[in-house]
Amino acid sequence: MKNAIATVAMLLALATGRGLTIHALEPQDATKSPVQYRVSFRQAANHRVDIEVSVPTDGASSLRLMMPVWTPGSYLVREYARQIESISAHNAITNTSLKLNKVDKNHWIVETAGAEEVTLRYVLYGREMGVRTNWIESDFAFLTGAATFITREDALDRPHIVRLDALPQWPQIATSLPAHDPHNPWTRVANNYDTLVDSPIVLGDIDVQSMNIGSAQHHLATLGTDQLWDTRKAMKDAAKIIELEQKFWGDIPYNDYWFLNLATESGGGLEHDNSCVLMTSRWAQKQRSKYIDWLALVSHEFFHAWNVRRLRPKVLNTYDYNAEQYTRELWIAEGLTSYYDELFVVRAGLSTPKEYLERISKQIQSVQTTPGRTVQSLEESSFDTWIKFYRPDENAANSRISYYGKGALVGLILDAEIRTRTANQKSLDDCMRTLWQRHRGTGYENQDFINIVSETTGTPMQEWFAKMLASTDEMRFGPFLDCYGLRWKPKDGDKNKDGEKKPPEGEVDTGDAPAATAAIVGIELVNQSGKGMIEKVSRHGAASAAGIQAGDELIGWDGYRVTPENWSERLGLYKVGATVNALVTRRGKLLEIPVELNANPTESWNLVRVDTPTPEQEARWKSWLQIEEIAAIAK
Ligand SMILES: [Zn+2]
């Protein structure tokens, strides 16, 4: 891909000679004249960016212009056009105004009046810190393609050239877009609009660490750490993960890859073909667990260079920038990527097997204590991401399950299932590689993946997947524990009053977690200017049974004042079985509500290894975490 871009860039560079005007292109290329942007940051202190885009008309009397409503990888209609403050169209040569008609929320039609080229000028506001939005300020700018660039809707396949008028205090630029002219880093070229949307741009004071791994260059471009990061160490650690993931997939589908690492005290990541955006804290490297979080994020986003970027659910093979694209496969795209992210950190020797078990225990705990797991299936979670996962409300945990969280656990259990069924000859790794080899560039559906797993294990898997994907039945962890020789470790005092492990409701098998009781009422209290506002009420908690609602303000407990600060401590003084009067206000009215602190099971899902694993369990444990390879890396 890089070669193709370089050819276009070289052609254009030869043809232009000056500035951004490309009139000297060969006649046969005229129909492919590029779309060209000039991006100015003179209003950066006010979070605004001035954009001028020159659009060839090819003799058309009118042009339809478009700005995406969402960006790939983040499945929510974000209405990027809402940040446009002013917009106008002009003849590029004479600068006379042209009629510009907005026809819907993200489209405009410009009457060209015979102009060869139209210049569109618009001002964009950008102050949303996140991996799929824009942030513009005096210190730096982060531009997301879909949130920034209006284009001619029927010219998406053309080169799009971006000239950035960076501020003097921004010495560097980091993006996977190649330079249009090798001597000028500030003008970049994308060989089509998809690539432009897929190539975020960072401008500012950026530390760049580069390393050749496999046959490709990798760059860690870090911004905003105030020298609190050892970025050379970060690059070296990331390199261990990069190398393993390259070997995992078997080939390297890029030449040059950028990790855009922004220490903005925010979080999250977003994948692209040749880069990814990571948001983190300037303190993240100072604390081991936070640094492992960051390494898992690196691992996750880089894994996406294959899974979801070049190997996609069929529906997403061609992007529709105007509307939602519904898919039942995000548990593969995101869930299995989430399963592998932590796994590659431990396989790279960057976390210990003990830490790995602790971290996946937390993931299991999170999914298994979400009431929504019994309401929404994994396929539904994927399909409805546009209206549910990305739009959480106070009822989300009661009615939904994340395709990241549950999807990762399906990966965990499935991997064990494949290893057990094949006497440890095959694993989920083999299935992922087959999926890549067969469906790279063409897309897959759930059934394709199920077929591959059935082939790999030599056993029918349809029913297994039906239960995991389409039903809300509880996941069975027993086979997973048996596979590697693991068990649940009860917390101290984690027993009911008879001293026995009490299984949670539902079907019991050897994999069920121990349960205990605790005086919890099932509310999430947030401090709003000193007021204890009840933000969420768990459907299975005592508060819900008593009639306490989200939005109530908790002011009294058992006749005494409670505050957000003392609430947890006060609650801890009460025993299960007691009935306590809660005083709340609801829409200005005082209500006294008796709450019975009934036996509210708190399950603990802490994984530990059994004392004496069988030789088979030991072998599967070692091949799962690649223990021998870890030892080799450490040498
Ligand atoms: Zn992801």
Short description:
The protein is an alpha+beta fold and 635 residues long.
Structure description:
This protein has 635 residues and is of the alpha+beta class. The protein folds into 4 domains: 2-204, Immunoglobulin-like; 207-286, Zincin-like; 314-476, Neutral Protease, domain 2, CATH 1.10.390; 516-603, Pdz3 Domain. The protein has 18 helices and 31 strands. An 8-stranded mixed sheet has the order 5-4-8-2-1-12-15-14. The protein has a 5-stranded mixed sheet with strand order 17-18-19-21-20, covered by helices on one side. A 4-stranded antiparallel sheet has the order 6-7-3-11, with no helix packed on it. It is globular. The protein starts with a helix and ends with a helix. Residues 1-30 and 493-512 have low confidence and may be disordered. The structure holds zinc ion.
- What is the topology, as strand order, of the major beta sheet? 5-4-8-2-1-12-15-14
What kind of sheet is the major sheet? 8 strands, mixed
Shape descriptor reads globular
Count the helices. How many?
A: 18
Q: Which class do the helix and strand fractions yield?
A: alpha+beta
Number of strands: 31
Q: How many domain units?
A: 4
Helix content: 25-40%
Which CATH C-level class of the largest domain is it? Answer: Mainly Beta
Ligands and ions found: zinc ion
What is the CATH topology of the largest domain? Immunoglobulin-like
* Content of β-strand: 25-35%
CATH architecture of the largest domain: Sandwich
Are there runs of 5+ residues with pLDDT below 50, and where? 1-30, 493-512
Mean pLDDT: 91
Terminal Cα span = 37 Å
* Radius of gyration over all CA atoms, rounded: 27 Å
